[in-house]
Design brief:
alpha+beta; 32% strand
Length: 99
């Protein structure tokens, strides 16, 4: 089971796919991009409801119940996150205090 989660996350990491990650309970749901993948953990750059950066979360792979891409056709959030990525936010391309 962990192998299939790792494979799905590795593809999403490579493609920079916005994901909806659900835990074992209904209230545990995270939207973000996989930015690092380890043997037991995944690091996600969280995305808020407006598509902006909202910190990071390290999630144990064994606590992930479901991983699904957020489709831009089905979600306002995916469109907003894509716009933010085009502006340089969420991709690491923006300049931090340099002219």
């Amino acid at each position: 089971m962990l192998a299939s989660k790792r494979f799905s996350l590795a593809l999403a990491l490579q493609d920079r796919t916005l994901l909806n990650v659900r835990g074992p309970f209904d209230w545990h749901e995270t939207n973000g991009y996989a930015v690092r993948l380890g043997d037991e953990w995944a690091l996600f750059q969280l995305v808020d409801r407006c598509g902006g950066e909202d910190g990071f979360a390290a999630i144990r792979l064994e606590t992930i119940a479901e991983i699904a891409p957020v489709s831009s056709d089905d979600s306002f959030l995916a469109g907003r996150a894509a716009e933010a990525a085009d502006r340089g936010s969420l991709s690491g391309r923006r300049s931090r205090g340099r002219a």
